[in-house]
Amino acid sequence: VPDPAHPMLEVQGLSKHYPIESGFLRRRVGAIRAVDGVSFTVDKGTTLGLVGESGCGKTTLLRILAGFEAPTIGEIIIDGQPMSAVPPHQRPVNMVFQNYALYPHLNVADNIAFGLRIRKESKDHIAASVDEVGGILGLTPYLERRPADLSGRQRQRVAMGRAIVRRPKVFLFDEPLSNLDAKLRVEMRTEIKSLHQNLGASMVYVTHDQIEAMTLATKIVVMKAGVIQQIGSPSEIYNRPANLFVADFMGSPAMNLIPAKARTNGGGTTIEIARREGEPIVLNDPRAKDLPADVIVGLRPEDIAEPGFRHGETVQQADCRVDIVEPAGADTYVMTHLGGKPVTARMHSETEAAAGNVHTFAFDLAKVSYFEPETGHRLN
Questions:
Q1: pTM of the prediction?
Q2: C-alpha–C-alpha distance, residues 15 and 67, integer Å
Q3: Is beta strand 269-273 parallel, antiparallel or unpaired with respect to 281-285?
């Protein structure tokens, strides 16, 4: 019986360094730090999203959790048990790969049952397990088909079925939806979320798609060059990014990051932002902030909107020349230039903003983020 006092998965100080060798004698001259000092926990029944740019160490970390690679240093604990001496096939984890990794010569039922046969489970247990998993994933009509006769969506379900059938304590997903088209990705996200709720399983979900992470994860780990940049809930990561990298990476469109001048004006803070034409715009944050003179102002596109849609003392208006208008169904994205940077506002579909014209933008400073330009660290 799992002990509720500890997380299902604990990663403690995990690093993976690959040696760099040079010369005829292949002398070691350094190391590539693919994963560097990573620590986090995954509670029972929750999903942790691992996100970051390609090459940041996400998949390497997942392979270490699965036991396919050994860490240079650090510890992995699953349900209170250290995993350093446990081989991959004995770890209570199962991995769903990006390319499905199905056996083309086996039918769906045999692909799902493969791990159970390796573990020498009884025929009755295997048959019952395959029937159960087939029912959960809607694969019952396809159990006799081979992977080549299935759609991408069905192959993805078979890959998940092979993971589910072993009833692991932790599921590991390595960008499982990257081979699907946009519509199927949305549908499969819903299926994975439903599956997670039905199984009550703990999951680690690797993706470069921050929308997937925000949709599926209970907690998100943002990585860059093998190092964790921030750990938090989707809301924390989105609304209070720890640094410029997280602010720019999470969100689509990305957060606007605008160079500005700041000064305290008694009870609040004055933010001065250069315009391409005319005098700088001046915004007044009613909250007094202890900010340096030079700052980066972070505002999400939805926090720069049409006048009249946001109210309160944190909403400030300014006229800006429109560069580009992009209709997007219910919303229209309106681009201007501020602080020498392109800035995107999210306005309603019937906006009168037009390229080349001056339009009034409403800046809601209630959710503004301030960053230090040199270090990129969050200031508020």
A1: 0.88
A2: 14
A3: antiparallel
